[in-house]
């Protein structure tokens, strides 16, 4: 693959990722969540979406894949650890952190289907 083709592929993946996050955020808002952060980054990790409904905060990893199983498999132990580290950092910055219930979700964005929300996809270590 040529260098230009690699750059074009990288740009296409970047755009697909942003669009998938937009679809996921929209689906969550229709379910009553408020998006409080997008692409939250700290040194130890990154969170695609932070969604809140009352005292429940969903730390959401968005995956654009061809199947739900592929999306679930794409969030391995290392990715979970990075997401959990970022979630710990975000939670420490919240004034009402003691009242917050935190959960880790996945939203799978599948071709020609509504985004699939998987609440409590994993529990923190």
UniProtKB/TrEMBL annotation:
Coiled coil: none annotated. It comes from the Bacteria. SUPFAM superfamilies: Restriction endonuclease-like. Gene3D superfamilies: 3.40.1350.10. HAMAP family: UPF0102. Belongs to the UPF0102 family. This is UPF0102 protein U0C82_14000. It comes from Fulvimarina uroteuthidis. The lineage of its organism: Bacteria, Pseudomonadati, Pseudomonadota, Alphaproteobacteria, Hyphomicrobiales.
């Amino acid at each position: 693959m040529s260098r230009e083709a690699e750059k074009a592929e990288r740009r296409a993946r970047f755009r697909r990722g942003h669009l998938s996050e937009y679809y996921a955020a929209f689906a969550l808002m229709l379910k009553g969540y408020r998006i409080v952060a997008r692409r939250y980054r700290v040194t130890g990790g990154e969170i695609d979406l932070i969604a809140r409904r009352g005292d429940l905060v969903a730390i959401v990893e968005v995956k654009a894949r061809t199947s739900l199983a592929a999306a679930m498999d794409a969030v391995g132990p290392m990715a979970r650890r990075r997401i959990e580290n970022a979630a710990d950092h975000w939670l420490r910055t919240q004034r009402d952190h003691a009242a917050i219930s935190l959960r880790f979700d996945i939203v799978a964005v599948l071709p020609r289907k509504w985004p699939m929300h998987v609440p409590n996809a994993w529990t923190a270590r």
